[in-house]
UniProtKB/TrEMBL annotation:
The lineage of its organism: Bacteria, Bacillati, Bacillota, Tissierellia, Tissierellales. This is GTP cyclohydrolase 1 type 2 homolog. Belongs to the GTP cyclohydrolase I type 2/NIF3 family. GO terms for molecular function: metal ion binding. NCBIfam families: YbgI_SA1388. A divalent metal cation 1 binds at residues 65, 104, 222, 226. GO terms for cellular component: cytoplasm. A divalent metal cation 2 binds at residue 64. The keyword Aminoacyl-tRNA synthetase does not apply. Keywords: Metal-binding.
Length: 259
């Protein structure tokens, strides 16, 4: 399979037009006419991912977060830098493709994977752009105390610790989830009468807004919220390209520890 054939297939499934203006999804580096036989899927092009790709001779690294996000004024090799990883990928003839906010917003995207991990059913779009497209999901569950839901969430997501803002000594019913940084979507949760919002990276003023509106925030971590898309994405690609070897790369260590 040529790289251009894979990209044409994928961008029909997850169109680039769905990405935000600030984003840089799409091909980061590569030769469209080259054959692709091995793909490694990862949230980021970190050292662990790149070293594995080099060692095991993958042709394409597929990342969620764009490797080239901000405009590059120069490309200088420095220890543990994006530039150095990009240079190393180019030297080793490894191509890079990224799918960020367009994968966030499609029906089967990143937040859907988190919702499924929490076994939410009959979900609706939290911030709807058009039919089946938008950010985040919300759904009703059987009424439960917030603290019991938190313990259940930690078990389903295999998390030792989470950060919680708000009153947990109350019953809840409507749960919203959004992968990555969720602070900008707190008003959407309020407008949709959600009791709990599962996401990450809430700013102080966002925490206050949520608590003033009786919305419980559960910060599970950015990486921890998005990693569940990797395996479903692998399966989707593998189904269409059974002849290609496709693997998933996870971080070796947690991205954070809460003592």
């Amino acid at each position: 399979m040529k790289l251009k054939d894979f990209i044409n297939w994928y961008e029909k499934l997850v169109p680039l037009e769905l990405q935000e203006d600030f984003d840089n999804s799409g091909l980061q580096f590569g030769n469209l006419d080259r054959e692709i036989k091995k793909i490694l899927i990862s949230l980021d092009l970190d050292n662990n991912c790149l070293n594995r790709a080099i060692k095991e001779k993958y042709d394409l690294i597929f990342t969620h977060h764009p490797v080239i996000f901000h405009p590059l004024k120069n490309i200088i090799e420095q220890d543990n830098s994006v530039n150095t990883r990009l240079i190393s990928a180019i030297r080793n003839d490894i191509f890079i493709y990224s799918s960020h906010t367009n994968l966030d917003s499609v029906e089967f995207g990143v937040s859907d994977a988190l919702a499924k991990q929490l076994r939410l059913i009959n979900t609706k779009i939290l911030d709807s752009h058009k039919n089946k497209i938008g950010y985040g999901k919300y759904a009703d569950i059987d009424e439960i105390f917030a603290e019991d839901f938190i313990y259940d969430l930690k078990n389903k997501l295999n998390l030792e610790k989470v950060i919680v803002y708000g009153n947990t000594n109350r019953k809840i019913k409507r749960i919203a989830v959004l992968c990555g940084s969720g602070g900008h979507f707190i008003q959407n949760c309020i407008d949709n009468n959600c009791d709990v919002f599962v996401s990450s990276e809430f700013k102080y003023d966002e925490q206050i807004d949520a608590q003033d509106n009786n919305l419980v925030l559960i910060d599970i971590g950015h990486y921890e919220s998005e990693k569940f898309i990797l395996e479903p994405l692998r399966q989707t690609i593998q189904k269409s390209f059974p002849e290609i070897k496709i693997d998933v790369n996870y971080l070796e260590k947690p991205t954070r520890k809460i003592f």
